Amino acid sequence: MGENGVLQTRLRNGLRVHLKEIHTAPVISCWIWYRVGSRNERPGVTGISHWVEHMQFKGTPRFPAGTLDRTINRDGGIWNAMTWLDWTAYYETLPADKVNLALELESDRMVNCLYEPKEVESERTVIISEREGHENEPTFRLAEEVQGTAFRVHSYHHEVIGDISDLRSISRDDLYQHYRNYYTPSNAVLAIAGDFRSSTLLKRIREYYGGVPTSDIIDFESRVEPQQFGEKRVLVEGPGETPFVEITYHSPAGSHPDFLPLSILDSLLSGASSLNFFGGGISNKTSRLYRELVEGDLAAAVSGSLPASIDPFMYSIRATVRSDSEPDRVVDVIDQEIEKLLQEKVQEAEVSKAIKQARALFAYGSESISNQAFWLGCSEMFASYEWFETYLDRISEITSERILEVARSYLTPQNRTVGIYRPRGGTFNG
């Protein structure tokens, strides 16, 4: 048993297992993480990882489609899944005495999903409709153009949901091959937190997963994004009444030493943002950009985003521009605030406040059993569980000098893409 009551081990077939005992409530949260997401996709099959996630709910011989929902609901549990840049994750949160159900259905889904042609075509309609729904959102249209412009070479170029042309052409065999390639024990992490004894639960895990055969991953090697040598600009026009701004800087990987100082820099500029997909937010009204843009009547909202990823990704600042304001003016004000950061040392009191907010938000996003299980696996996808365990200590050591250093390294015009959405009025079709 490691620190904080976490047991970490690996089965002979390569499956990594992380267990954390939490005896505050008779509940368990079981997560299975696969190292596959949109990063592992090539042009022609973009969106395939997300589509495979959908197909995993379409049944096996042991659990036909529809029976899983009834089984989980009958036992008072919840379950779901998500696909992102670097991973796909499935989870069940159940009464502690139903842990065998989670182990059985996930070990079964790892091997025996059917991918019936009829279900594939049905889900094609669902996913294309989902994609079209996103396209009705100006923020999605802008974000997709900015991301695709910022990344010319790396597979982070496309959105997780994929390109519409690929969603129309991906075949059942494409999906099944993607499933068989990546859904194997050596490419997975099983993370469980809750009310159990680790030694007893580990025996059950060996029973359910020990006999699952592993296979070598035929991995897709992402190409390294070349250095950007000048600012890029994107203009998107479309229906609506509200302009939007998104400014994106190439940022370090989640495991890089500059990542956490940059996250505190984001807290100073736009307010602390949660690293947990289930984490709540806290007020950003004391952040520099809120004061200048929102209180200055230029924007209705402003936020920042710095996801933790395997490869260098993006730090984004987004603003909802007031209809009586101009996007270019919002960009100018953001530039002015960044220039202040680059030229003037941030006061230690302001750094301390930003760190305190980040600590609080991290705590809010880590307190429940489900969140604890989330971090058991998620941190392993881009770094290791030690990244999570040492987070609070590491951000407490960040100084104003370190913030200035990362600001000068990343927040340069040559390293960014500026996107503006200009509304034409009217509504979206469809």
Helix content: 40-55%
- Residue windows where pLDDT falls under 50 for at least 5 positions: none
Average of per-residue pLDDT values: 94
SSE run: EEEHHEEHHHHHEHEEHHEEHHHHHHE
Major sheet size, sense and barrel closure: 6 strands, mixed
- Major beta sheet, strand line-up: 1-2-6-3-5-4
Describe this structure in words.
It is a single chain. With 430 residues, the chain is of the alpha+beta class. It is 42% helix and 18% strand. The strands form 2 sheets. Strands 1-2-6-3-5-4 form a 6-stranded mixed beta sheet, with helices on both faces. It has a 5-stranded mixed beta sheet with strand order 7-11-8-10-9, with helices on both faces. Strand 4 (78-83) and strand 5 (88-95) form a beta hairpin. Helix 9 packs across helix 16 (400-410). It is globular.
Topology (elements, then pairings):
Layout: E1 6-10, E2 16-21, E3 27-34, H1 48-55, H2 67-74, E4 78-83, E5 88-95, H3 99-112, H4 117-135, H5 138-150, H6 164-169, H7 172-182, E6 188-194, H8 198-209, E7 232-238, E8 244-250, H9 259-270, H10 288-294, E9 299-305, E10 314-321, H11 327-343, H12 348-364, H13 369-382, H14 385-389, H15 391-396, H16 400-410, E11 416-423
Parallel strand pairs: 2-6, 7-11
Antiparallel strand pairs: 1-2, 3-5, 3-6, 4-5, 8-10, 8-11, 9-10
Helix pairs in contact: 1-7, 3-8, 9-12, 9-16, 10-11
